[in-house]
C-alpha cells in the first residue's frame, strides 16, 4: 500500500488517495484502536489480507545492523572478548522471535491526514473476497471488553471468506509489528515463511470447514457465557469455557446455504485447526448481505434483495423438543421476523416490491435501516426505538414476546430519498444522451454526469436489480461511559459517479424526520447532526474507478453525546460543532480514498445549513450588488447598477483610485459629477457596470469579510438582480419591432 497519499481538494472536501497496486475486494475498519492510538484498517486482495495501522505514535526506526569483525582485523578499535564457562549459554538460533516494538515518546504532529505507521501482509495463498469484524462500538484497548471478552484488549479478531470456499477466523496482536520483526533473515530467505498459520506474526488461524463454494458474505459475533445452557450435561457445557466466536457465512450452493460455526478463541499460537458447522440452513434464494445484532447477539439480519430482510436466531430451536444436537446450540434455528419493502411504482409492476440494496442494524440493534434500489431509504422500528414512541410501547423482542415467530413489518417509521436519485425513481422521464433512435440530442452537463448512474437502468423498474450499494454503521463510544453512544451511517449507491450520503447522528436525524413529517421543526435550519449530507466531487479521488464500498473512520478526539441526551448541542458535543464525526473511506478497484470535510467550511451548503460562529447581530453589512432595497429600508431609495457617466463607454477609462486597489495611469479622466443629478435622466437599458467588473475581479479576497458574510441575504439579492434583468429584457422587446419576411 502506498503510505504517502495523493491529495486533491474540492469545494466541499479534501480527498486522500492511497494506491494499493492490486484489486481490492473488501475493506473494513476494526472497532478497537491499537495501544499507541492507531486506527486499524483491513482490506482483502488477491493474495490475502493486509492490516494497516494508521495514526498514533510512530515506531522507532530500524536500528542499523552491527558488522562483525574478523579475528585478523588490523583496525585500531578491535576488541577481543573472552567468554568464560560461567557465562549464560548463547540463545539458540531456533528460539522463537519475541517482538518488542518501541514507539516514539514525542506526540505526533497534528496534521490533516493521519500517517500510516505500519502495514502487515497476511498471505492466504488465495483471494480474500469478504471480511467481517465484530459489531461492537469503537473503543480503546482498555475499554474493549465487549460481552466480557478480555481477548479484545490485546488481539484483533476477524473472519475471512476466500475465493476457494475456505473461511478462516484469524486473531492477531493489536500492537503493530516492529521494523526488526519484518526484517528477520528467515523471512528473506523463504518467501513462504510469513504465510498465515505458521505463527511468525503471533497469529492463530482456525479453518471453517463444510463449505464447497466461494462465500458471498460472512459475519462474526461473540457468545455470552449465559447462552448455550440447553442441557445440564457436563459434555454440553464443557465447550462453554473461554471466549468463543459465532461465525455465519452464506454461499450460492443449491439455491442458497447459510452456515454457522462455533469457534473457540485462544491466545496461544498453534497449528491450523478446523471446525465444522453446527447449523446449516437451506434458503429459497441467495442472500446479498447479513450482520449480527450488537445487542441481541444471537440474532442475524439476512437480506434477500427480491423478497425481504429477515431476522434469524440460531439459539432459538425451530422445534421445542429438539434434543438431537450435540453442542450447546440447537441443530436448527428459527426465523423470527420478515421486513418487507414497499411496492414499485407503475401499473405493470404493481405486484413487485422494490429491491433491497442493503440493510443494517441501527439504534443499537432495536431498528433496521434499509436502502432500496431506487434511492429510497427507510427505518423499520422493531423494538420501539423511535424517539416519538413511548417507553410502554410494544417491543417485539422483549421478554413478553420471546416466542415470536413468523411476524412481518411493512411500514417504515420514517423514510426519504437520497439526493441525486430522482432518475432511479422515474426512469421513463430520463433520456440517455447515447440512446439510439431517440432522435434528440441531450448535452452532457454536470447535472447529467452526476446522475450517470441512471443510464444503466433505462427501460423499466425491473432493471433496478442491477443497482449496487450498501450501508455502513459506525458506533461511537459514550464519552462518560454511561449508556450507548451515538451512531453514524453512510449510505451509498455505486457507479461511475457514486452517490454517497452521511448521517452524522442517526438518533437526531430520525427525530428530525419525524418532526418534519408531523409539521414540527424545520430541518433546513437544524444543526449538522440532524440532516443528511451528500459528498460531492468523489471522482477526483477515485480517478475514474467505480466505487464498490464505503466505510466510516471515527475521528480521533471525538466524543459522543449519547442517544438519550437532549437535542441541544453541548460543549462536549463535537459532532454538532465541528462537522462530521467520521471520515469516509471509499473503496475503488485498485485504490482507497479517505474523504475529509473541508476545514474552512466555506461551501454554500455549510453556510446555508451549518451553525454560524458569530451571532447575526455581529455580522457586517454585505457588499453585494443590490437591485432592490432591503425590507428595512424605505421604498423610495433608488439603486443604479452603473457608476459610469453618459457617453463614458466611448471615452478612455482609468482604474478607480483607492476603492479597488488600482494604479493611476496617464489617461484622460472625465471630471466626476456624481453629486450633480441629471435632469430627467431617461431610462437606459444595458449592463454599463460591466466595464468596472475587471477591476473588481483583481481585488484580493478578505477572509474576515468572507467569514462574516450573510449568504442568505446575498442569495435574495441575486434573485432580485435576476428579476431586474428579466424586466430589462422585457423592456427591450417592447421597444423593438419584429419584421417577418415571407416568400412571395
Automatic annotation (TrEMBL):
Name of this chain's protein: Nucleoporin NUP37
Superkingdom in the source lineage: Eukaryota
Cited InterPro entries: WD40/YVTN_repeat-like_dom_sf, WD40_repeat_dom_sf
Residue stretches of biased makeup (Polar residues): 557-577
Keywords in alphabetical order: Coiled coil
Coiled-coil zones: 711-738
Region named Disordered: 414-442, 551-577
Organism expressing this protein natively: Immersiella caudata
Amino acid at each position: 500500500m502506498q503510505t504517502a497519499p495523493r491529495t486533491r481538494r474540492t469545494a466541499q472536501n479534501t480527498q486522500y488517495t492511497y494506491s494499493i497496486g492490486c484489486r481490492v475486494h473488501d475493506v473494513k475498519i476494526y472497532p478497537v484502536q491499537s495501544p499507541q492510538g492507531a486506527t486499524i484498517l483491513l482490506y482483502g486482495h488477491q493474495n490475502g489480507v493486509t492490516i494497516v495501522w494508521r495514526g498514533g505514535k510512530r515506531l522507532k526506526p530500524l536500528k542499523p545492523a552491527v558488522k562483525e569483525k574478523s579475528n585478523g582485523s588490523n583496525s585500531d578499535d578491535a576488541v577481543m572478548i573472552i567468554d568464560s564457562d560461567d557465562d549464560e549459554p548463547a540463545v539458540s538460533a531456533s528460539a522463537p522471535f519475541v517482538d518488542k516494538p518501541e514507539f516514539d515518546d514525542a506526540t505526533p504532529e497534528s496534521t490533516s491526514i493521519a500517517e500510516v505507521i505500519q502495514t502487515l501482509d497476511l498471505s492466504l495463498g488465495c483471494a480474500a473476497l469478504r471480511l467481517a469484524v465484530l459489531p461492537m462500538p469503537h473503543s480503546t484497548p482498555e475499554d474493549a471488553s465487549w460481552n466480557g471478552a478480555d481477548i479484545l484488549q490485546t488481539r484483533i479478531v476477524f473472519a475471512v471468506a476466500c475465493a476457494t470456499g475456505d473461511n478462516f477466523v484469524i486473531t492477531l496482536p493489536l500492537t503493530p509489528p516492529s521494523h526488526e520483526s519484518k526484517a528477520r533473515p528467515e523471512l528473506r530467505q523463504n518467501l513462504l515463511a510469513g504465510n498465515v498459520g505458521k505463527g511468525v506474526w503471533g497469529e492463530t488461524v482456525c479453518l471453517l470447514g463444510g463449505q464447497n463454494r466461494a462465500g458471498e458474505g460472512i459475519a462474526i459475533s461473540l457468545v455470552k457465557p449465559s447462552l448455550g445452557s440447553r442441557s445440564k450435561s457436563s459434555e454440553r457445557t464443557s465447550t462453554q469455557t473461554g471466549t468463543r466466536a459465532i461465525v455465519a457465512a452464506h454461499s450460492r450452493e443449491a439455491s442458497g446455504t447459510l452456515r454457522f460455526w462455533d469457534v473457540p478463541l485462544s491466545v496461544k499460537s498453534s497449528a491450523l485447526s478446523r471446525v465444522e458447522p453446527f447449523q446449516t440452513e437451506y434458503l429459497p434464494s441467495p442472500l446479498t448481505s447479513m450482520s449480527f445484532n450488537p445487542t441481541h447477539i444471537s440474532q442475524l439480519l439476512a437480506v434477500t434483495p427480491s423478497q425481504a430482510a429477515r431476522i434469524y436466531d440460531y439459539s432459538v430451536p425451530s422445534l421445542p423438543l429438539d434434543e438431537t444436537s450435540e453442542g450447546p446450540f440447537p441443530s436448527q434455528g428459527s426465523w423470527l421476523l420478515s421486513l418487507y419493502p414497499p411496492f414499485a411504482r407503475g401499473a405493470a409492476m404493481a405486484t413487485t416490491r422494490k429491491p433491497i440494496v442493503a440493510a443494517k442494524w441501527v439504534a443499537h440493534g432495536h431498528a433496521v435501516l434499509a436502502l432500496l434500489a431506487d434511492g429510497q431509504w427507510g427505518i423499520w422500528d422493531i423494538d420501539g426505538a423511535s424517539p416519538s414512541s413511548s417507553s410502554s410501547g410494544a417491543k417485539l423482542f422483549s421478554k413478553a414476546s420471546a416466542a415470536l415467530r413468523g411476524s412481518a413489518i411493512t411500514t417504515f417509521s420514517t423514510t426519504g430519498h437520497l439526493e441525486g436519485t430522482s432518475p432511479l425513481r422515474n426512469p421513463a422521464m430520463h433520456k440517455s444522451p447515447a440512446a439510439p433512435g431517440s432522435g434528440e440530442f441531450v448535452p452532457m452537463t454536470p447535472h447529467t454526469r452526476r446522475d450517470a448512474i441512471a443510464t444503466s437502468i433505462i427501460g423499466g423498474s425491473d432493471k433496478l436489480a442491477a443497482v449496487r450499494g450498501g450501508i455502513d454503521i459506525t458506533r461511537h463510544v459514550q464519552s462518560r461511559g454511561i449508556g450507548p453512544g451515538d451512531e453514524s451511517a453512510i449510505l451509498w449507491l455505486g457507479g461511475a459517479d457514486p452517490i454517497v450520503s452521511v448521517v452524522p447522528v442517526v438518533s437526531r436525524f430520525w427525530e428530525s424526520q419525524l418532526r418534519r413529517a408531523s409539521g414540527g421543526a424545520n430541518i433546513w435550519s437544524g444543526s449538522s447532526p440532524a440532516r443528511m449530507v451528500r459528498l460531492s466531487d468523489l471522482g477526483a479521488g477515485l480517478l475514474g474507478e467505480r466505487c464498490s464500498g464505503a466505510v466510516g473512520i471515527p475521528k480521533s478526539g471525538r466524543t459522543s453525546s449519547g442517544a438519550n441526551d437532549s437535542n441541544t448541542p453541548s460543549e462536549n458535543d463535537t459532532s454538532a460543532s465541528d462537522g462530521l464525526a467520521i471520515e469516509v473511506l471509499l473503496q475503488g478497484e485498485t485504490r482507497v480514498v479517505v474523504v475529509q470535510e473541508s476545514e474552512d467550511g466555506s461551501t454554500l451548503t455549510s453556510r446555508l445549513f451549518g451553525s454560524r460562529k458569530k451571532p447575526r447581530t455581529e455580522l457586517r453589512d454585505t457588499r453585494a450588488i443590490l437591485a432592490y432595497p432591503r425590507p428595512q429600508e424605505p421604498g423610495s431609495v433608488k439603486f443604479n447598477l452603473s457608476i459610469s457617466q453618459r457617453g463614458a463607454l466611448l471615452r478612455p477609462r482609468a482604474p478607480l483610485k483607492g476603492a479597488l486597489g488600482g494604479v493611476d495611469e496617464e489617461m484622460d479622466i472625465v471630471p466626476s459629477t456624481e453629486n450633480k443629478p441629471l435632469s430627467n435622466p431617461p431610462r437606459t437599458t444595458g449592463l454599463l457596470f460591466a466595464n468596472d467588473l475587471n477591476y473588481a475581479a483583481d481585488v484580493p479576497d478578505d477572509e474576515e469579510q468572507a467569514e462574516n458574510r450573510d449568504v442568505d441575504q446575498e442569495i435574495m439579492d441575486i434573485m432580485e438582480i435576476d428579476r431586474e434583468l428579466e424586466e430589462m429584457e422585457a423592456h427591450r422587446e417592447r421597444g423593438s419591432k419584429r419584421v417577418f419576411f415571407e416568400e412571395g
